[in-house]
Design goal:
heterodimer, A: mainly alpha, two-stranded antiparallel sheet, 3 helices, 2 strands, B: alpha/beta, Amidase signature (AS) enzymes, 11-stranded mixed β-sheet, 15 helices, globular, transferase (chain A), Asp/Glu-ADT_sf_sub_c (chain A), transferase activity (chain A), nucleotide-binding (chain A), glutaminyl-tRNA synthase (glutamine-hydrolyzing) activity (chain A)
């Protein structure tokens, strides 16, 4: 499996990271080095092996479905780059 | 009495209990040491006001006869932990200015016990790195130097600031986190002790997430006994982390008898890798001899899937990171890029993440995105999870056959120069974790103990791996190793 510039561009887009056009070939090269390393996994016989879901064999705990927290709008917005009238503010989404 | 900064946590606790020192005196001594250690770039946010207030409260509490083990003990906190009202940036530009309005469960528990926070510690960005060179704060520097050389060495990573601070006596102990070796490798590079507990022993709530199925916090200290004291105070079930185990936390310190007669120590042949320096091999053999002298039975074992641990890790960890780091979008906290006329929300996300994440973080997020993308999910991610099952089974098999603990080298080399890996491809850096990463994949406890020095005088360490939930028994073997190795060297002060 070899990653070309187009795949690198698409992956950057999926990851929502702006990568300048001139940087894409080098990025594809780095991906290929890492994926080449990962490729070793193809040697392993994994027939009939379950993919690991949880490393410790325990059931996740459940709790009652009740409100335990809330009314902290101010604390939640305190770190926002832009907040207005109790909301996070972002560039216009709907034309 | 030796200098207050030369005490272990156990010694400081006992002196506090006897009324022979105060939390405030301990705190002032360490604040002064930090003040003079700017060259190490270990502490990146200083919190002397908090420390002094906590120290006064601790002294008042001790005067009342109420003294949990960590009460009055000055510690450093890795920048990955959210600390209320104190910058917590995971060493990333994208969390620039982030002051959490809440406290991580672990720091909350420690403060509840009376521990004192001196400040926040340097690390690799989002804990992604093995040399502390990906930090937005710049490199942390190892207090150790090689022979007469003045070249700056890496303290390892990702908990590089924690390791440098403990090694240089800037705090009595520090919090680290370990996703693939990030406590044990820096501990090994700086001649201190570091334990990654069983996955689920400590709550992850309030720790900036990297790879949630692998991340665990742990203590970094100057003795095994201190690790036992510190770890007990951090451990326990937390309703806010459903993967934290609802199991009793034993008194780990009480389990340190140093008696390991009759215990079976496994020596895995797969850890004897090509190109391993002879000094590491010798160190390993010395460790084997020490444990045999202590009365343990040494047994050769095989962990056949060891070779596939790093490649599996470099699928699973980036996959989880790409998901966890999706939250950094410039909306709720941290950095937001300056937008141009006409930019919409997609441009805001893309520019913010390009500016906010460093090269290594971007690389891992994109690798993770790729291995999870349609058409590749089965070939990479599912296959890696199956290999992970096999790696865990390797350990289960040897434990079922009667092995109590496993002895391996902690790292494939001693500390290297900062900048030495600049032109190497990323895989070369990843190889630092070759001995530690299996432990995260299998969810097991692992501890690095300094046992020797290389010919240039740099510390080297061995790793012990234990059974799940048996940190106490593991630390007891580590204690035996520490007793016999008699590692007392410390870096000569140049900073």
């Amino acid at each position: 499996m070899s990653i070309d510039t187009e795949t690198a561009r698409r992956t950057a887009k999926l990851a929502r990271i702006a990568v300048p056009e001139e940087r894409l070939p080098a990025l594809a090269g780095e991906f290929n080095a890492i994926l080449g390393f990962i490729e070793q996994l193809q040697e392993v016989d994994v027939d009939g092996v379950e993919p690991m879901v949880s490393v410790t064999p325990m059931r996740l705990k459940r709790r009652d479905d009740v409100v335990t927290d809330g009314n902290q709008a101010e604390a939640i917005l305190a770190n926002a780059p832009e907040a207005r009238e109790g909301f996070f503010a972002v560039p216009k989404v709907v034309e | 009495m030796s200098a207050l900064t030369d005490l272990t946590i156990a010694e400081a606790r006992d002196l506090l209990r006897a009324g022979e020192t105060t939390a405030l005196a301990l705190t002032e001594a360490h604040l002064e040491a930090i003040e003079g250690a700017g060259a190490l770039n270990a502490f990146v946010h200083h919190t002397p006001e908090i420390a002094r207030a906590q120290a006064k409260a601790a002294d008042a509490r001790i005067a009342r006869g109420d003294q949990p083990d960590m009460c009055g003990i000055p510690i450093g906190v890795k920048d990955l932990f959210c600390t209320k009202g104190v910058l917590s940036q995971a060493a990333s530009k994208i969390l620039d200015g982030f002051k959490p309005p809440y406290e991580s469960t672990i720091t909350d528990k420690l403060f509840h016990d009376g521990a004192i926070m001196l400040g926040k510690l340097n690390m690799d960005e989002f804990a992604m790195g093995s040399s502390n060179e990906t930090s937005v704060y710049g490199d942390a520097v190892n207090p150790w130097r090689a022979g007469n050389s003045e070249a700056a060495l890496t303290p390892g990573g990702s908990s590089g600031g924690s390791a440098a601070a403990v090694s240089a006596h800037l705090c009595l102990g520090a919090l680290g986190t370990d996703t693939g070796g990030s406590i044990r490798q820096p501990a090994a590079f700086t001649g201190i002790t570091g334990i990654k507990p069983t996955y689920g022993r400590c709550s992850r709530w309030g720790i900036v997430a990297f790879a949630s199925s692998l991340d665990q916090a742990g203590p970094m200290t100057r003795s095994v006994r201190d690790a036992a004291i510190f770890l007990r105070a951090m451990s326990g079930h937390d309703p806010k982390d459903s993967t934290s185990a609802d199991l009793p936390v034993p008194d780990f310190e009480a389990m340190l008898t140093g008696d390991i007669r009759g215990q079976v120590i496994g020596i895995p042949k797969e850890y004897r890798i090509d190109g391993m320096p002879e000094e590491i091999d010798t160190l390993w053999q010395q460790g084997i001899d020490m444990l045999r002298d202590a009365g343990a039975e040494i047994r050769d074992i095989s962990l056949p899937h060891t070779k596939y641990a790093l490649p599996a890790y470099y699928v699973i960890a980036p996959a989880e990171a790409s998901s966890n780091l999706a939250r950094y979008d410039g909306v709720r906290f941290g950095h937001r890029a300056k937008l141009s006329q006409g930019d919409g929300i997609t441009e805001m996300y893309e520019k913010t993440r390009a500016e906010g994440f460093g090269d290594e973080v971007q690389r891992r997020v994109m690798v993770g995105t790729y291995v999870l993308s349609a058409g590749f999910y089965d070939a990479y991610y599912n296959r890696a999870r199956k290999v992970r099952t096999l790696i865990k089974k390797d350990f289960e098999d040897v434990f079922a056959a009667g092995v109590d603990a496993i002895l391996t080298p902690a790292t494939p080399s001693s500390a290297f120069e900062l900048g030495a890996m600049e032109d190497a491809d990323p895989i070369q850096m990843y190889l630092n974790d070759v001995f530690t990463v299996t432990v995260n994949l299998a969810g097991l406890p692992g501890i690095a103990v300094p046992t020797g020095q290389d010919r240039r005088g740099l510390p080297m360490a061995l790793q012990l791996i234990g059974k799940p939930w048996e940190e106490g028994a593991l630390m007891n073997v580590a204690q035996s190793l520490e007793d016999r190795a008699g590692f007392v060297a410390r870096p000569e002060k140049w900073w």
